[in-house]
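Batch manifest, entry 17 of 40.
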Amino acid sequence: MMTHEQPGLLLVDDEPLVLRALERQLRGILRTPRPGYRIEAYTRPAEALQRARETVFDVVISDYRMPEMNGVAFLRAFRAIQPVAARLILSGQADLGGLADAVNEAGIMRYLSKPWDEAELVFAIENALKERRLLLENQRLADELRASRSQLSLQEAELRRLERESPGITQVNWGPDGEVLLDPDGETERKRGQWE
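Output type: structure tokens
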């Protein structure tokens, strides 16, 4: 189950210095006009994906070229976990084929070049957040319309609303003995004997 504490930005770049500079700049920009933004930064895409399974992010910004997993593969995997989050890609080299993949496969909203321009970065994040809010509102309105046409029960509409707000909340993983598994990898099953 995921939590959605406060608006969150997820940053992923394999270069720690670039990541720290981006995080520092965003904290300075986002603190004043928008208090309460949560910014999390990761140098390893796999760790960022694991975190995305635990908490909701409104915006994710990923580097394009990373050794473990490129930005397109990362954002595609992230999209599967959190389809409503705004996705942006950051790259120091223009690769038209890679950018086309990012748009077509990962559904990115914006490409930003390194070094980034602060005004462009703020503009991109603000637009991504607006687009995300519009998408959530459109989904809510569509659910209400289907419910009014009796195509969607009130319970289904509520489940969809909960899933939009906290992805994963409506999914329960059951174990072979009827127990609820708290993680999909089976760690709960292995630890169950310790709890009894």
